Every structure is written in C-alpha cells, then in structure tokens.
Amino acid sequence: MKRITATPLLLLLLCVSSAFAAGTPEKPPVFRVVIDAGHGGQDAGAGRQGLLEKELSLKLAQKVKALGKNSPVEVIMTRSGDEFVSLQDRSKLALEHEAALFLSIHINQSEQPETSGIEIFVSSENARATQSRMFAEGLSRTLQAGESEIPVQGTKEANYLVLKNTTCPAALLEVGYLSNPGDRQNLQNDAFLDHLAGLIWESILGYLEN
Fold first, then answer.
1. What three-state secondary structure class fits 140?
2. d(CA 71, CA 41)
C-alpha cells in the first residue's frame, strides 16, 4: 500500500499541532470540509448478504473524519449515526458552514455481479463545476496510484441533487459494488477501509493545498 508523502499542507498541520502543544494562542487557518455518509435511517441504500450501504458509508466517513483530528481542516459530517438526512439538508449544511469542499460517500450495486469498480461523479450544474472536477480527477489519480484493491473507473458526470445543489466544489464517490464478490470482500476488510480513507484524506489535502 502507498505511503502518504509529506506536502506543504501536511507540514503545516504538523506545525499547527506543535504550536498548540507549546501553548501558542494563535488560531490556525481553518478549512471546512463536509463529508456526507450516504443514506441512513429508513433509507438503507444498497444491500447484499447482510451488508448495508448506509452502515459502510458511515464507517468510511468516520475514518476520514478521524484523520482530520487536531488539524486546521475541520471535518463536518452530514450524519454521525444511523439517521435520515434529506438531500436538501445535506447540501444546506455545506452552505451554512461555508465549506471549501463537499464529498458524498456511497457504495453501489448492480444486477450484473461482474460489475466492479470505484467511480467518482461530478455535476456540470454545480456552481463550482471546474473546481469539482479538479478535485474529482485528483482523487481518481490518488486512488489509482494507491494500489487500491478495487479498480478505479475514473470521473463521470451525474446531476445528483447533492452535487448540483451544493454551492462549494462537490463530488460523489462510489467505493465499489456490494453485488460484486471481490468488491464486497474488500469492503468488509477494515484494513482496506483504513487504506481507502487515507487515500481520500490525501486527496482532500492535495486539493486544499492547491
């Protein structure tokens, strides 16, 4: 698995953490990123063999959030438990917090069990469509280079409500197919989810750095 390399933003995070440890009173710059765990509550999303999209998307989102602890990147979750949140409220949260980025996490399924892969979606109707695609393509490159066990299918266009109604750059990540035996096995592996969360976090930092 690929190691996350030190970048100027990563070095900034280390400096900020050191400053807090030394009791420096100055506040660091804050980037706000909204991580949206797809579905929730009565909306279970995809499901196969006892695995539910709403649970896996939340688990991965929580792992990404944990990587932002003690950093100037404030990670805001659209949900922190098994609760239903409307699509409108998910987009509204990014606006209320003046987020720099919105990432929605999902798991796919298909009637064809051979269908596999990680897909990233953006909307041309998003107010920051160019920046959305910039982030999505960077995420795709990072996932491809990160030796992911699930093939990366690249960036695609889709006018999902959470993408086109969000005023900041936004992308939707489908991290595999529960209907595919190989993808499903990987998505049950905690080490794989940790690795995937690390690649997502690396991509977020890379986008904010630019």
1. helix
2. 30
Q: What's the CA dihedral at 156, 38, 103, 87 to 10 degrees?
A: 90
pLDDT above 90 covers a percentage of the chain that reads 81
Question: Using an 8 Å Cβ cutoff, are 142 and 207 in contact?
Answer: no
Domain boundaries, the chain: 29-209
SS3 content of the chain, % helix, strand, coil (to 5): 40, 20, 35
**SS3 label, residue 75:** strand
Buried b / exposed e along 11-31 (16+ C-beta atoms within 10 A): ebbeebeeeeeeeeeeebeeb
CA angle 105, 106, 112 (to 5 degrees): 155
Q: How confident is the model at residue 53 (pLDDT cuts 50, 70, 90)?
A: very high
**Top CATH class, 29-209:** alpha beta
